[in-house]
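User: I'm writing a tutorial on reading structure tokens. Could you give me a worked example: one chain, its sequence, then its tokens, then a sentence or two explaining what the tokens reveal?
Assistant: Sure. Here is the example chain.
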Amino acid sequence: MAGTIDPDAGISAAGEPITEAEALQRLRQSEDHSQQYYAAWWLGRHRSRHPEALPLLLAALRQRRPRDPGAGVEENAIARNAARALGKLGDASAIPELLAALDDGDDGLREAAARSLGELQATEAVAVLLRRLASGPAGAGAPRLDSPRLQEPCEAMLEALGAIGIAEPGVITLIEAFTAHDRPLIRSAACRALLQLSGEARWAEPLMQLLDHPQLQVRRAALMDLGAVGWRPALEPICRTLVENSLKLFALRGLVEQGEHHDAEIAIESVLNAMDSLL
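And here are its predicted structure tokens:
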């Protein structure tokens, strides 16, 4: 298997979707990487509370390999899925291993670890994230020579800083530098983080402007960022933007669940009515 994942990995021998017990068994074995990959995803997706889930995912995270061409592809893919799953399990005991992954040579793993540390609101991660992003848009945010990716997974790291919620001046100053990044997805992530940390409406304006961006990917990102923050004044712009209704509903759910954190004049009933109109 050269880095591909078997599309039938989520089906049991009986032709049915796998169960928690099967997911755990598949993650225990080490011969079939496709089964390990899918099992790690399954445990995170279903937020498993089985006592074996956490140690097995931590073991899967540790089985990564150095980022050499043609080596360790499957192991690193499994480690990334394990990192994503650990954030969804919500267990703070995973934080030390995820912190170590922030300094891994695989930027895809750093991205997954950053997102999970944000989900866990791991204050311990702030110093590491600031260090990785300290060189700013011209350093951490510069494009790689051999890839369209940036030197650091800035989008995930900025979002993590916003989710963790430490609004210290040094954090704010660093994030502000990325609001002028060339890539709209990075600007969106930076404004999202600043809006979460400060609650200042001026950081919502660039996000609402991105809802009219010609690229669908950018409109989707801005939509989800506004939903994640719960910025209810974005209700009408969200409803008008040209993206799938399913994503609009997801973002509007964020306005319902997160909107109480803001002194928005938009009542929850207005958001619920908008959701009904999209169904």
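What the tokens reveal: The two ends are 42 Å apart (CA to CA). Residues 113-198 form one domain.
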